[in-house]
Amino acid sequence: VDEVALVEILTRPKNALVKQYQALFAMDNVQLEFDEGAVKAIAHEAIRRRTGARGLRAVVEQHMLDVMYEIPGAKNIKGCKVTRETIEQGIRPQLIYKDPASALTPAGEPDSEEDIA
After folding, report:
1. Distances (CA, A) of 81 to 1, 7, 44, 47
2. Which CATH number belongs to the domain containing residue 77 in this structure?
């Protein structure tokens, strides 16, 4: 299965993996976005691992696990954006806060510039 087919599998069917995760996050009133680069990177990683369509969920879970546990307890998060860098470089998905001051760590420092955007 090639990258184009895997991208279709991730996004097109009624029960597509991307839609499943968006519905899961919506239960906590968080809008989840996978940019086009992220979806392609997920497909590419499944090809690299030689797992094909069966391995798509494992790739997504690997990069979403931490935020999936954090979001239900955090009422100040309104969005989560997954980018190509999230998948390719293991960078944490970008969290979008209702109140930018909520992005501060206990020490009072922003987690990163992206977290307070």
Report:
1. 27, 17, 19, 23
2. 1.10.8.60
